[in-house]
Each structure stands twice: as C-alpha cells, then as structure tokens.
Amino acid sequence: MSFASLEDRLIRVFGAWGMIDDGVDSDTGNADSQAATELSDQPMSGSEKTKLLKEITEMADAFVGMQAISASHSVQYLNFIMAALFELISHDDQDIRVAADEAINKITKLSDVYLTQHVICEFFIEMKRNRSKRALSVAMKKFAACVHKVNPKKRRMYAINLLPVLRGLLLNSLLAKLESGKNYIRRAAADIVVSTVIHSRLPRELAYRLLQQLAGKWFVPAGFFFN
Q: pTM here?
C-alpha cells in the first residue's frame, strides 16, 4: 500500500474524530494545530464502540505503515495520534482503554530509530500534560521502558527537564494529601513537602512556586467579588 493511501486512511480517522478542519488538504495531510482531540466519554452504543475500536486499530496500522515508508514525513502526525490515544487511555470503557494502550505499544515497538526518539518525546510531553491519573501512569511507565533508547545527545536535556516534572507531580500529590481527613497523613505529607523544599537545590524558588499553588488552591482570587 502506498504512503498516500495510508495517509488517506489516517486522515479519515482524524475527520471522524473531529481532529481536522473540513477544509484540510488530504494530499498534504496538513492537520489543524488547533484540532479538537477531546473524544467523548459518554456511554456508547454497541455499534459506536465497535466503530471506535476499529478506528483506533486503523489509525495505528496506517501510521505504522506510513513510517515504514517514510518516517520523516510521518512524524508530523505523531503528536495528534499520541494525544488522541492518551486521551482514550482515560476512557470510561475498559475495551477502549486497552485498545488505545495496544495502539501506543504497536507504534512504539514498530517505530524506527529516528521515530522512536519522537515517540519518547511524546511520552515526556504527556507526563507534563498530566491530564489524568491513568494517562500519566501509562506515560510514565512507557517513558521508563524506553529511556534506555534515548539518544545520548538528548540525555542531559531529559535529565534537566524531567526533574522539575517529577517534583511537580510529587508536590501536587502531597498537596492533595494535606486535605486528608486523617491527621497522620496530613502531618506526613507536610513533613515531606518541607523536607523537599529545604533540600532542594533552589529552595527559595521551589518555596515560591509551592506558595503560589497553595494560594491558588485555597484562597479566593482578589477580583472574585468584583466581577
């Protein structure tokens, strides 16, 4: 099958999911950067579920076929595909979640060396998005599984950028526990937060960010009563 025919299959799925404008050029596959990737979590009929499962498989197969022909031309679609699949990872229906996970695994496994670096980057981006617990957990596991494949020239970049992401995730989790109804959980969370700030390389900056998060979480905005 030619690259163009595989691309057409991919774009048909994008269109069915509302991810491209009606006026998109199917010859170039110029996906709209503002594409809507939010797929409905509303209860589906049996036929709708079957259709969605088929489209997930079709999208993954089309992309894998495209990258086998030309990885450099296929990479432009990767961000849209991964964003949609990670959204489906949080779908209410378990079969949809499993299908999305399998599609991500297939793309990861069959990507060439060039595209693998972009796939790893998509896992990192999804970790930064932190859209849902399921998607975050899957992204972290897949990033960890692929980290040994990171280009040596990119390792320092990931190391520098990964720490703030993980620290932010940790602090967000701990801040949530500060509202626990159990005293010992609140005390333990508070102790860990304080220790993290004190032993940070940039304690003042981290403390400032932490206070910003707390202020935004627990205090009413100044202009609230004047709107």
A: 0.74
